[in-house]
Amino acid sequence: MTHQPRVVIIGAGFAGIEAAKKLGKHRVNVLLIDRHNYHTFIPMLYQVATAILYPHQVVYPLRRLFRGLPTVNFLQADVEKIDFHNQTISAENVAIDYNYLVIATGSQTQYLGVTGAPENTFPMRTLTDAIAIRNQVLSRFEQAVKVTNEAERIRLLTFVIVGGGATGVELAGSLSELINSALGKDYPSLNRDRARVILVQSGERLFPSYPEKLGKYAEKWLRRQGVKVHLNSKVSKVTSEAVYLEDDTAIFTDTVIWTAGVLAAIPQTKQPVKTATKEKILVEQTLQLCGYENVYGVGDVSYVESEEEFNGVAQEAIQQGKTAADNIRRQISGKIPLPFDYLNKGRLAIIGKHAGVGIIGKFAIKGFIAWFLWLEVHLLYLPGIRNRLGVLFNWLKYYFFGESASRIIISTDGVRSNK
Ligand SMILES: Cc1cc2nc3c(=O)[nH]c(=O)nc-3n(C[C@H](O)[C@H](O)[C@H](O)COP(=O)(O)OP(=O)(O)OC[C@H]3O[C@@H](n4cnc5c(N)ncnc54)[C@H](O)[C@@H]3O)c2cc1C
Questions:
Q1: Of the residues 18, 170, 219, 316, which is catalytic?
Q2: d(CA 382, CA 282)
């Protein structure tokens, strides 16, 4: 019997599941490892945080996803260390050998050295994060009903979002809609004008990775919705009581959501690896790690030197996952790996109801068409027919009748991981 090489994939995000699917379809022996037993559809997390969707609608169980691919095995574990020379990884003190390795561990929140930010802000990357934000917002409203001191009520109903990129803008738009519609109805005794959403952006405009006019459009839309947008404002300190800006402005609040920075989320490596911006691992155009031809880095964790500008979006991760799988198959059959060839299908971001922005080819789009395309594309890529139908139903209810899904406070005590 011939020896079947084993491909270990760390990370079951967009890049990892795509690589596993492609290899599995060709009956390659795969071990897929993730610290969660589900795949998270990250672009829709903000809709969980703002109660448009139920948490289970944006995740999909990994064992179910790979049920039809018998050569793909799944292990729920946290990978701590990689030893490239011995071709092993250690996951929760178990050593696992590989012939080929795909590192697809994505990114993590970066607090940019701001004092108090890691302890006093809410990150927004995982399902647990999104549920925690939803709990926080809803419980501040419940608290605000009980307090008699007006200044304290205003503090409880002040929600600060740090970072004016896509995630910050999406959250600000959706949170203000939640407050203006559903929460307004749920808390008739509270003066809705007391609730404030404040978006703090260090640069001079929102959506810095999109053309300027789209940033201006988003700013105008958010201001009309009642969001206070602070541009050219850097956060210097966060405490449990307030956010401090570099010009000494203090915003008193109980809720700060941090969307401002990202950093690659690579496990420890026994041998040093070359890194690029945001500590991403530097990979060749074939996506192989410099110096290790049986190791690939794909998705948000890696940096490909190329003329193409990459923005850390799901499409890039998906296509890189596929390329890594193709190249491993080529290596197994004695061929040389090919360079990654990215097909840029465009980018979209949503601001709120009937408002979005996007770049398709050379065209910048905004408004209803961008919003509608965002919904359509994301529904198409969301894994699981039941999830798609559920999401569609919730969207119809929300966008036509202003009724959001789940305004309940779920205890997350004992729920593992803030990673
Ligand atoms: C809030 C938010 C909104 C976004 N919205 C959009 C959008 O609308 N459109 C878009 O195209 N892109 C969007 N992005 C970017 C997009 O989500 C990423 O580009 C994409 O998820 C990258 O895929 P990936 O496979 O590299 O990493 P991820 O999808 O992050 O997956 C990484 C996986 O690795 C696992 N993992 C990490 N470390 C370990 C370890 N040590 N051991 C075991 N498992 C580990 C994690 O649990 C995770 O499942 C958004 C990102 C964020 C944070």
A1: 170
A2: 29
